[in-house]
Each structure stands twice: as structure tokens, then as C-alpha cells.
Amino acid sequence: MNNNEMREEIIRRTGADPLKCMKCGKCSASCPSYDEMEYHPHQFADMIARGKIEPLCNSESLYKCMSCMVCNERCPRGVKPGALVEAVRLIVIRQSGKNHLSQDKIPQLLNPELPQQAIVTAMRKYAK
Asked: pTM for the full model?
């Protein structure tokens, strides 16, 4: 799948329109994983809009995103950056034919102080 096909597939799956992104950064400002990510939510939207999917596919930012979707709520234009991140992650997982992390490994990586939402999100993210 080339970059344009991936871009169209991501837009189709998410229903998001990354061209609406005005790069205000509200989504990134509310991201709990901001400091851990190479590419931030608003950058994902911009790169997808420009068809620069390959760097996103090779970025560890895909797995640093907590899928909390706070960025979707904060976006004044309804771009859905969190959904875009998840769509790219699913494409990478499906192309490689496996998950980045198996479900069996998740419990030993969890910090007991994590909120339950993070635990459920991790299970949902890696179970696909």
C-alpha cells in the first residue's frame, strides 16, 4: 500500500478530515503522552493530510499514544487526531501480521498507580 492509498484508508476508517487541522496545538497540549512522543497529535493530522505516512508508520509515537482520545475532545475543528493515530497503528500492526505487544506481557508492564482507564485502553489497543 503506497502513501496515498494509506492516507485514503486512514480517512475512510476514521471519518476524520485531517485537512481541517489548523495546527492550533490544543490536541497536543492536552496529550498525557506529549513528552514521550516523537510526533504529537497535531503533527499526525498534518502529516496524514500531506500524505507523509511512512515516517509515522516507523515512529514509536504510535505505541506511546494512550488512546485516551482527549485530543479528539479538545480539537475545535473535529479532526479526531487520536483516531488518526489509532488508524495508522492498526495499519502497521496488520501489515506486520502481529501486535506490537502481546496481551500476556501487558500485566507485568503495568504500574499499579495507573488509572483503570489506562489499563482498559492498553488491553483494547493491543488486542486488535
From this structure: 0.75
Give the three-state DSSP class for 112: coil
The alpha carbon dihedral of 39, 43, 44, 47 has a sign of negative
User: Helices (H) and strands (E) in the chain — how many of each?
Assistant: 9, 0
> Where does the pLDDT of residue 28 fall: very low under 50, low under 70, confident under 90, or very high at 90 and above?
very high
Neighbour-count burial for 72-99, b at 16+ CB within 10 Å, e otherwise: bebbeeebbbbbbbbbbbbbbbeeeeee
Picking from 118, 41, 34, the residue whose alpha carbon sits closest to that of residue 85 is 41
Q: Residues 58-109: pLDDT tens digits?
A: 999 999 998 899 999 999 999 999 999 999 998 888 887 665 566 677 777 7
The packing angle between helices 3-14 and 81-96, to 10°, is: 120
Residue 59: DSSP 8-state: -
Question: 83, 88, 54: which is closest to 69 by C-alpha?
Answer: 83
